[in-house]
Design brief:
Layout (H helix, E strand, L loop, with lengths): L50 H26 L14 H8 L8 E3 L4 H7 L3 H8 L23 E4 L7 H13 L6 E6 L6 H13 L3 E7 L8 H4 L7 H5 L4 E6 L3 H13 L31 E6 L17 H6 L3 H11 L5 H24 L27 H7 L1
Parallel strand pairs: 1-2, 1-3, 3-4, 4-6, 5-6
Length: 407
């Protein structure tokens, strides 16, 4: 698919929004139609991004798109096994949010995690090799598509259990607070996780301890295949999810990478430095803390990022719950950014084409790297199970990925 400046008529969600007012949930729950209010003092944070920074955002989104297209081909050729969840359509969420972080801020994701891995800095070769089950993968090929892990880049895994990453996100934030570090943890989840107990327990604990964590709802409105309005209470007013725990709420159009960046740039600054109200030094032990999180001191946040996946829930999804016309009518986040950059003289079509060709080349090279890498040997069956040797379970040593990435 060529990346052109004009692929379809512009809609109200196509361009970088700049309207004022409060964010309003679209009553039909459709992404791309959010009347998102500006919560920013003065100019939007993205207004300060240089042409080079915008080009970097576009390059990362293109890489994810072309990488995922190659992933789909490899899966259909039976080179990738197990479940495989494609990130096409949601590129702006990972790229926009992660670009607003510091390099040492940790993230944790669900099982649609290729986008976060690439946006955080994992080399596509290791990501693809992991899906091929090769020893050169980020987890030696033992995790596969749903378990991308990159400690050097502060990505603490994709996780296959729905909502299972939420307590881990809280744990990352607790470690930040306990060690008095200047960091913020991002915990990504899909709308299918909203009804899981682990999500609510995590929100409760984050609020009680006032942890530096942001829960990032990648709201593609279909979870596995049921529209969110059919399966989640108060889906038409996501603010209630945050307010139930006294937590800050924000909402943005996940098909606009600049709006995502603006929202996260602002909310990260309001989360960094969050302190536990129970750790006040002059507080009497028997004195109960007062929890006043909303709008006051830095604390946790719940961000509803309205997005749309143009592929199935997984590669085996027949997608009978929606029409092809619905999918085709949704704005493309890459086209949105391309249009903005051209209209504001940040890039010419020639450069955009070059970026796209480069992304295609990198994705193709990742396939070749994965195909030519050594398979996972039988001797690896008993390695990396326990942190200390136990019986036949032995230390697997440093992986190729860790050795090459950390070095």
């Amino acid at each position: 698919m060529p990346i052109a400046t004009q692929d379809k008529p512009a809609s109200d969600a196509d361009a970088h929004a700049g309207s004022n007012g409060s964010p309003k949930q679209n009553p039909k729950g459709d992404p791309g139609l959010t009347d998102n209010a500006s919560r920013f003092a003065g100019e939007r944070p993205s207004a300060d991004l240089s042409s080079d920074a915008l080009i970097d955002l576009l390059a990362k989104m293109m890489l994810i798109r072309r990488f995922e297209e190659r992933t789909m081909q490899a899966y259909q050729q039976a080179k990738i096994g197990g479940f495989c969840h494609i990130y096409i359509g949601q590129e702006a969420v990972a790229v926009g949010s992660i670009s607003a972080l510091n390099p040492d801020d940790p993230i944790v994701a669900a099982y649609r995690d290729h986008g976060q891995a690439l946006a955080r800095g994992m080399h596509p070769n290791y990501c693809m090799a992991e899906m091929f089950g090769k020893v050169t993968g980020c987890a030696k090929g033992k995790g596969g598509s749903m378990h991308m892990f990159d400690k050097p880049h502060q990505m603490y895994g994709g996780h296959a259990i729905v909502g299972g990453q939420c307590p881990l996100g809280v744990g990352l934030a607790f470690a930040i607070q306990y060690q008095r570090e200047d960091k913020v943890a991002l915990c990504y989840l899909g709308d299918g996780a909203l009804n899981q107990g682990a999500f609510h327990e995590s929100m409760n604990l984050a609020a009680i301890y006032n942890l530096p964590v942001i829960f990032v709802l990648e709201n593609n409105h279909y979870s596995m295949g049921t529209h969110i309005l059919r399966g989640t209470a108060m889906a038409n007013d996501m603010r209630q999810k945050a307010e139930a725990y006294g937590m800050r709420y924000a909402q943005c159009n996940g098909l606009d990478v600049l709006e995502v960046y603006d929202t996260f740039h602002t909310e990260i600054s309001h989360t960094r430095g969050a302190k536990n109200p129970q750790w006040i030094e002059d507080r009497e032990f028997h004195e109960l803390p007062e929890y006043k999180v909303e709008g006051e001191k830095p604390g946790p946040c719940f961000i509803n990022v309205e997005t749309y996946r143009t592929q199935g829930h997984s590669m085996s999804d027949p997608q009978k719950y929606r029409s092809k016309d619905e999918v085709g009518d949704k704005p493309d986040p890459i086209q949105n950014l391309v249009r903005y950059m051209v209209e504001h003289d940040h890039a010419k079509q020639g450069l955009i084409d070059e970026l796209d060709e480069k992304a295609k080349t990198i994705a193709k090279a990742a396939i070749q790297y994965a195909e030519e890498s050594e398979p996972l040997g039988m001797e690896e069956m008993y390695t990396d199970v326990y942190s200390e040797p136990f019986g036949k379970y032995v230390d697997g040593g440093e992986s190729i990925f860790m050795r090459e990435t950390a070095g």
